[in-house]
Amino acid sequence: MDIFSIIVIAIGLAMDAFAVSIASGVTIRCFKQRIAFRVAFFFGFFQAIMPVLGWLAGNSFRIYITSFDHWIAFGLLLFIGGKMIYESFYLEEKQKSCNPENILILFTLAIATSIDALAVGLSFSILNLNIIEPILIIGVITFVLSYIGVFIGDKFGSLFENKIEIIGGLVLIGIGIKILLEHLL
Description:
With 185 residues, the protein is mostly helical. 82% of the residues lie in helices and 0% in strands. The radius of gyration is 16 Å and the shape is elongated.
């Protein structure tokens, strides 16, 4: 997989964390950069670690699925993208539970927004990719977008959140279609 595709996947994965970061920025009573950094760190860290876990799991059974691995990668990305689009319509519920000043809530949000990255890591293993470069890119992009998201939430409220998740979902579906077409054609 080329670097451009990895960057696009990273941006697509980061959209969930970005949307929750915006919601977190809305909920902060007294804005502090320390809180924005904490949110970005948690989201970036978990978004980078989950693909590793998926990749490790996938490596254990990759030899059994090589003849149809592209269908699995396509299905996972289609599912993740569709889930992101579906969830974009329920953003108000996310905002109610997005207080980043509570470490337990932040930890839970970081895991919840990175579950999709676990499945992407599984796809990376199925495609026999080295995991180091993708996780660095995914972690850094998620960190930066989450940091920016907290500021946007603080300044502009919830104008963009669900649109961002829809775009991220469409991007992941597009990457899944690209993987499938590369193997079929």
